[in-house]
From TrEMBL, chains A, B:
Pfam families: Ala_racemase_N (PF01168), D-ser_dehydrat (PF14031). PANTHER family: D-SERINE DEHYDRATASE (PTHR28004:SF2), ZGC:162816-RELATED (PTHR28004). It comes from the Eukaryota. One of its GO terms (molecular function) is D-serine ammonia-lyase activity. Its cofactor is Zn(2+); pyridoxal 5'-phosphate. Residues 258-357 form the D-serine dehydratase-like domain. It comes from Mytilus coruscus. This is D-serine dehydratase. Its EC number is 4.3.1.18. It catalyses: D-serine = pyruvate + NH4(+). InterPro entries: Ala_racemase_N, D-amino_acid_metab_enzyme, D-ser_dehydrat-like_dom, D-ser_dehydrat-like_sf, PLP-binding_barrel.
Length: 371, 371
């Protein structure tokens, strides 16, 4: 294991342990205060260590985005796992194994295809399929359109089946990603909460039992509106690392960002006013580059730098201002640190995370990979 | 192992064995005809199996883009490996191990920093550092500007050092990526070859021994100009898979593309004229999306479809024409195949490749990962 941050090979993904601990605790406190169950999403990091931290050591009540993740966490002693991806028939066999293995394994549906797949393959030995119904608030993500008749039909059919344990509703609440600042997110949260309550009332009117009202995403849960105490579950994920996208939205301050990429300068190109770094698209990912060219690669202590182009293993860096680079300030071989635009996208590119406290490397974590 | 393509989990990366075999053989034949040494790049796939195929079973004379790849191939019996990335001092120790372990291990430099790093750390027991000098033809990639005085200074200092075995020159020849069609690429190749020959003459005039004149990239080596028989080495990589980018440039026909992503439809969104697939940015990569929205996700047998948006695990598909989707034609659960814009970027997202001959899965390959 490298001794300090300066000894880590480049490019590498660094996790600030003191900051992830603080981010994890803050979300636990928020959920306790509001009286909602925290079901943190693992897709951002896919590690046992952060899953343990985010669940306050219980290893219970998590959410994942792939079956590979579900199987990885199940193997590592986690229970009460929600597989939060529209279910299709082709995945039933792997889901069945998880349902039998775990005390609680939940799937998410958003169509009759998913429901029929489950009903065609009932579980045995008193086990039931436990399902969440995903709602689309109109933004066109996965989920049943919230005002449609299908929401009621699907929920009714599910809740009345002897083979299914109907949990309730999940909303991603995409409007928080359009919001700006704490107040904007809080307002978007109020709207999302109202929407879920309206739907809950329709369920009650139709005699549908719905125990769970869950809301997702990092802005929602980082800047909750007090009215969200009527909800039962929070499903945030990215808050463990945060990133430039979340700082721009207002979910966090840039000081809360708990991950960064480290890279080294490998060449000078005065003819093009750039220098080269050993961080290509493979290490950082393209996420945010097209839409947020000035923020998607924010350099620690060098606010005027940005990446303007990539090959697989090399990045081209210039100034945001258009000023001439002072190459004496950036000798070949020197180490730099980049805050990613989207930490989920960047973390997923790495097979090991270097964990540090201050400058010292304290651990190396191995995330799950694949599908 | 899944029996057929229909049984493969989604999303997955598929490799058409008959096509990679044909692509590998064609490049071997091209190099034999022109009398140049083929040094295929492994960065596209990073597998033992394709490395073996591309070297005609010899497992000799390859090129890699990371030290992790170099170590992976060295562990798996490969020799004569060029680590084709601008060398910096921080990597010397790992390079030293490889230099001692292998019969031939070459590094690439493009600056005095790299040269000084090598000279500060000479090898023992009669071993010398074997180096290639990378040339920039003016496009601003890595490499010493080809008309500069530094090219001569670096080559002279390297070739006169008793600790260094100076191989010669490598040019990426970026202008082939700006070319269009066979004729355009051939012309760009002639220009690149002339440039290397001009530089070679400067070397001769300065009494610098230069045995190797190497040219890289897939368009160059797929559509070579006959004048390239004066060169000594070809360094292509992507030709083993090809992709939509190479087909657009004219390096191959779309029928030569030997890899594809398989995905399934997981939801319908008539309100937005889209359907959802279980292929997010993590499985396909963003490479090409911003610049080539209509080509970066070309669907086999469905030329009017394209991906217009991504989350980590979900893609949104609509029509290129703007026509209404016929949802009866695309039931939830059905399997689709996508040719990626850039096969290197897509392959690198996967921890396993499913190999097929016709519809039958014949093998599963595990690529190297990380840095």
């Amino acid at each position: 294991m490298p001794a300090t941050i300066s000894d880590v090979p480049t490019p590498s993904f660094l996790v600030d342990f003191d900051k992830v601990k603080k981010n994890a605790q803050k979300m636990i406190d928020t959920c306790e205060r509001l009286g909602v169950q925290l079901r943190p999403h693992m897709k951002t990091h896919k590690t046992v260590e952060l899953g343990t931290l985010m669940t306050n050591g219980t290893k219970r009540t998590i959410e994942v985005s792939t079956l590979e993740e579900a199987e990885f966490y199940a193997r590592n002693g986690f229970d009460d796992i929600l597989y939060a991806h529209p279910l299709i028939a082709a995945r039933i066999e792997r889901c069945k194994s998880l349902a039998y293995k775990l005390k609680a394994f939940h799937v998410m549906i958003e169509s009759f295809h998913g429901l029929i797949a489950l009903l065609s393959c009932p579980l045995k030995n008193g086990k039931k399929w436990s399902i969440y119904l995903e709602i689309d608030d109109g933004s066109g993500r996965s989920g049943v359109p919230w005002e449609s008749d299908d929401v009621i039909k699907l929920a009714k059919e599910a809740s009345e089946s002897p083979y299914i344990d109907f949990q309730g509703l999940y909303l991603f609440n995409g409007r928080t990603y359009e919001a700006k600042g704490t107040r904007g997110i809080e307002n978007a949260n109020k709207e999302g909460t109202d929407l879920l309550q309206t739907l809950h009332k329709r369920f009650t009117d139709n005699n549908i039992d719905c125990r769970t009202l869950a809301i997702g995403n990092t802005p929602s849960c980082s800047r909750p509106h007090e009215s969200m105490n009527v909800l039962t579950e929070f499903h945030p994920g990215n808050y463990i690392f945060y990133d430039m996208q979340q700082a721009t939205i207002g979910s966090c301050s840039s000081d809360d960002i708990a991950c960064r990429l480290t890279t080294r300068i490998i060449g000078h190109k005065p003819s093009h006013n750039i220098f080269l770094i050993d961080c290509g698209f493979l290490a950082l990912s393209y996420d945010g580059m097209a839409e947020h060219p000035d923020e998607f690669s924010t350099f620690l202590d060098h606010p005027d730098l940005k990446v303007i182009g990539f090959s697989q293993e090399i990045g081209k860096v210039t100034t945001k201002s258009g000023d001439k680079l002072n190459y004496d300030k950036y000798p070949i071989g020197s180490q730099l640190f980049i805050f990613p635009w989207h930490s989920c996208a960047t973390a997923c590119q790495h097979t090991v995370f270097y964990v540090h406290s201050g400058n010292n490397i304290t651990d190396m974590w191995t995330p799950a990979k694949g599908w």
